[in-house]
């Protein structure tokens, strides 16, 4: 439980701190601990009596870099390939369609034959969420099985007569300057 005596009750335009944190980080204890420790460090260094909204937002920015570096280490493609893909996605909207993701992969030098495997891998890493119902995206937790989510995303695309859509995890928004759509 987040104690509001020590941590600001609200962040990011009045959202409850706990709700906001859980919506923006990966659902792993180490990630929550990282953010809270970073926020406390910012507060102590600024001689605050409690963790302020700004301290928390600074910690989330640092967490974004931490998540980015962790994904580079936990990948199944070369680090340089993954980094090139992530750089190609910098500055995009948080929700992108299959044409956009494949374009980024192509620009990053990923061969056409490998694109689907790389998309699946980005989903396994938790970087990409898949649209499983119209405007509802789901992320895989800790390298879970992504095949059922891919199947569901294809059904949503088929039913809508369009292409699959993906959402970039909020943890990467600050470091990649992703904007909400």
Explain briefly what this protein structure is:
The chain is of the alpha+beta class and 181 residues long. It has eight helices and six strands.
Structural account:
Helix content is 52%, strand content 11%. With 181 residues, it is an alpha+beta fold. It has 2 domains: 10-73; 79-176, Arc Repressor Mutant, subunit A (Orthogonal Bundle), CATH 1.10.10. A 4-stranded antiparallel beta sheet has the order 3-6-4-5. A two-stranded antiparallel sheet has the order 1-2. The longest helix is centred in the middle third of the chain and has 21 residues, at 53-73. It is globular and about 55 Å long. The mean pLDDT is 87.
The geometry reads as: globular
Number of domains: 2
CATH architecture label name of the largest domain: Orthogonal Bundle
Highest-level CATH class of the largest domain: Mainly Alpha
What's the β-strand tally?
A: 6
Class by SSE composition: alpha+beta
Radius of gyration: 17 Å
Major beta sheet, strand line-up: 3-6-4-5
User: Which spans have pLDDT < 50 for at least 5 consecutive residues?
Assistant: none
Task: Give helix % range.
Answer: 40-55%
**SSE pattern, N- to C-terminal:** EEHHHHEHHEEHEH
- Cα distance spanning the termini: 31 Å
State the CATH topology of the largest domain.
Arc Repressor Mutant, subunit A
Taken as a percent bin, the fraction of beta residues is 5-15%
Residue-averaged pLDDT, rounded? Answer: 87
Major beta sheet summary: 4 strands, antiparallel
Helix count from the secondary structure assignment: 8
